[in-house]
Amino acid sequence: MAISAGNSFRTRDRLSVGAQSFEIHRLEALEKQGVSNLATLPFSLRILLENLLRCEDGRFVHAADIQFLAQWKPNGPEKEIAFMPARVLLQDFTGVPAVVDFATMREAIARMGGSPKRINPLFPAELVIDHSVQVDHFGGANSFGLNAELEFQRNVERYAFLRWGQTAFQNFKVVPPDTGICHQVNLEYLARVVCATPSGNKFEAYPDSVVGTDSHTTMVNALGVFGWGVGGIEAEAAMLGQPSSMLIPAVVGFRLHGRLREGATATDLVLTVTEMLRKKGVVGKFVEFYGSGLSSLSVPDRAVIANMAPEYGATMGFFPVDAETLAYLHFTARSHEQVALVEAYCKEQFLFRTDQTPDPAFSDTLELDLGSVEPTVAGPKRPQDRVPLRQAKSSFTKVVEGTPDKHVQVRNNGDSFDFSSGAVVIAAITSCTNTSNPSLMLGAALLAKKAVERGLQIKPWVKTSLAPGSKVVTDYLLAANLTQYLDKLKFNLVGYGCTTCIGNSGPLPEAIGAAIKENNLVAVAVLSGNRNFEGRIHPLVRANYLASPPLVVAYALAGRMDVDLTTEPLGTGSDGKPVFLREIWPTPQEIESTVRASVTSEQYRKEYAAVYEGDAHWKSMKVPLGDIYQWDPKSTYIKMPPYFENMPKTPPALADISGARVLAVLGDSVTTDHISPAGSIAVDSPAGKYLIANGVKPHDFNSYGARRGNHEVMMRGTFANIRLRNMLAPGTEGAWTLHLPDGEKMYIYDAAVKYREEGVPLIVIAGKEYGSGSSRDWAAKGPRLQGIRAVIAESYERIHRSNLVGMGILPLEFKPGENRETLGLTGHEIFETEGVASVSPKKTITVRAKSPDGSVKTFSATARIDTPEEISYYQHGGILQYVLRQML
Question: pLDDT (tens digit, 9 = 90+) per residue, 862-878?
Answer without folding.
Answer: 999 988 888 999 999 99
